[in-house]
């Protein structure tokens, strides 16, 4: 469900930035440069959320598991694997929308508004 929300959010962002993308394409910016800009805009809040959430999740999971007699010990990869999956899904989503936006004619995107 969160991936669909991310896709919807990024679709709205890309729709709002159509004119900016068209201008950048006309001025000669490559897809890689535009992609890096969009990924920075998406990664900054995600990395900030991960930095805040990981210690909280570690603490709460440790407190929750301490009540059981037979408990597992928390490993670093219990938290890193979901974060890596999240970043991979975010990258794929932004890449898909970027390829879709880069295929449009810059003249049409400038005429959009």
Describe the fold and architecture.
With 113 residues, this protein is mostly helical. 80% of the residues lie in helices and 0% in strands. It has five helices and no strands. The chain has helices at residues 2-16, 18-26, 31-65, 77-102, 106-110. α3 runs antiparallel to α4. It is elongated and about 65 Å long. The relative contact order is 0.19.
Q: In short, what is this structure?
A:
The protein is mainly α and 113 residues long. It has helices spanning 2-16, 18-26, 31-65, 77-102, 106-110. α1 (2-16) packs parallel to α4.
Q: Work out the helix count.
A: 5
Q: Give a count of the beta strands, DSSP E runs of length 2 or more.
A: 0
Please trace the helix and strand order, writing H or E for each element: HHHHH
Shape: elongated
The stretches of 5 or more residues where confidence is low (pLDDT under 50) are none
Largest sheet: none
CA distance, first residue to last residue: 31 Å
Lay out the secondary structure.
Layout: H1 2-16, H2 18-26, H3 31-65, H4 77-102, H5 106-110
Provide key terms for this protein.
mainly alpha, 80% helix, 113 residues, 5 helices, single chain
């Amino acid at each position: 469900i969160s991936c669909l929300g991310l896709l919807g959010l990024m679709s709205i962002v890309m729709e709002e930035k159509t004119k900016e993308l068209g201008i950048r394409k006309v001025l000669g910016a490559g897809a890689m440069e535009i992609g890096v800009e969009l990924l920075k805009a998406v990664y900054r809040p995600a990395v900030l959320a991960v930095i805040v959430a990981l210690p909280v999740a570690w603490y709460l999971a440790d407190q929750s598991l301490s009540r059981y007699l037979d408990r597992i010990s928390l490993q670093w990869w219990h938290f890193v694997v979901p974060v890596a999956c999240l970043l991979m899904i975010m990258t794929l989503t932004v890449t898909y929308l970027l390829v879709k936006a880069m295929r449009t004619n810059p003249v049409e995107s400038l005429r959009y508004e």
